[in-house]
Amino acid sequence: MKYILLVPDGAADDPLPELDGKTPLQAARTPNLDALARGGRVGSVLTVPEGMYPGSDVANMSLLGYEPARYYTGRGPLEAAALEVPLDERDVAFRCSLVASDGDTLLDYSSGHISTDEARTLMAVVQEKLGSRRFTFFPGVSYRHILRWTDGKLDLKTTPPHDIQGQPIAPHLPVGDGEDALRGLIFDSLELLSDHPVNRRRRDEGKPPGNMLWPWGQGLATTLPDFFGTRGKKGAMITAVDLLRGLARCAHLRVVDVPGATGYIDTNYRGKAQYGLHALDAGADFLYLHVESPDESGHEGNLDHKLQSLEDIDRDVVGPLLDGFKQRKQPFRLLVVPDHATPIALRTHRPGPVPFLLFDSRQEENSSLPFDERALEDTRLRVEEGHKLIDLLLKG
């Protein structure tokens, strides 16, 4: 038996007038997911405990089976783990986003999805000019980077940049112990990067510059129990984003690199399915397959992209997975669940339950519930503690 947990990040949404009151999950053409829903079980799960920010870090930790209230220390240390950034006991890791700003307003949380090559050029300048014994910068993918503050401060309030796009930055600057140091980095980076040749070129091309650092999501190093030791299953993770890679490394899941996986609408969907099947053939019992594109589309407020991403996932991820298992004549259990909602209208994450779909190739059900937000009201299968949902997948 093979077990797959497919996470279309941020796929859940709210009804939209542009879709005649439907959500993107309802409106998208998803024949494979529709068929699985008819033959499986559709339920509702609260992936983020009440009182915690509905971020992908908390939600995916929960879906992987780790109780966030017990194990979560922050987003920064998870992404630091992905980049194998060494953290001592008192080192504080921040997610350090490269954003676009005019000095007063946060214009774009992703610097127009700046390329990794451009971002690394800029981060090299940041490390050279702003790096010190206290502050070390580590380049990641696209706009996502890491700041390590040696003997740093934790008692700070910081804000995810995707929550404040288009808003003044002043009310959202770091507040608390060490705020002056972080605010200094933010404005020093703006002065350093705004006129860099990379950003001059981006402006000439009509693209947002990557001209300011925005540190947030701070925390101490994360430690998780070994997944195999806890679950008795050899596991693998496929993802394009460092946050999930970090979770995998902390849980000792094998990270499978997929060429062309970008974390955006242009990602290599079909490659994710193919490499996932190869990982299962090579000995993995459990595959965590994460697809970031619906979440990015939600943050952009781009309905067309969100619909496209859902249809691409259905056609180029779910379809090939089903074909692969059919060819192999191998039994499998598949759990499909968004980690959280990223509504188009809000352009950020929203708390609350999300729908999930559980399919077992050995014992098909006869369900009348669709895999979309309508199931949240109608289902009797409700999981109130998200970290326990994986038990439904692995029990078979």
UniProtKB/TrEMBL annotation:
One GO term of the biological process aspect: glycolytic process
Pathway given in the UniProt record: Carbohydrate degradation
Enzyme class: transferase
Catalytic activity reported: (2R)-2-phosphoglycerate = (2R)-3-phosphoglycerate
Alphabetic keyword roster: Glycolysis, Isomerase, Kinase, Transferase
Taxonomy, superkingdom: Bacteria
Organism, as annotated: uncultured Armatimonadetes bacterium
Annotated function: Catalyzes the interconversion of 2-phosphoglycerate and 3-phosphoglycerate.
Family label: Belongs to the BPG-independent phosphoglycerate mutase family. A-PGAM subfamily.
Protein name: Predicted functional analog of homoserine kinase
InterPro entries attached to this UniProt entry: Alkaline_phosphatase_core_sf, ApgAM_prokaryotes, Metalloenzyme, Pglycerate_mutase_ApgM
EC number(s) given by UniProt: 2.7.1.-
Annotated ranges, domain Metalloenzyme: 1-368
Transmembrane segments: none
GO function terms (MF aspect): kinase activity; metal ion binding; phosphoglycerate mutase activity
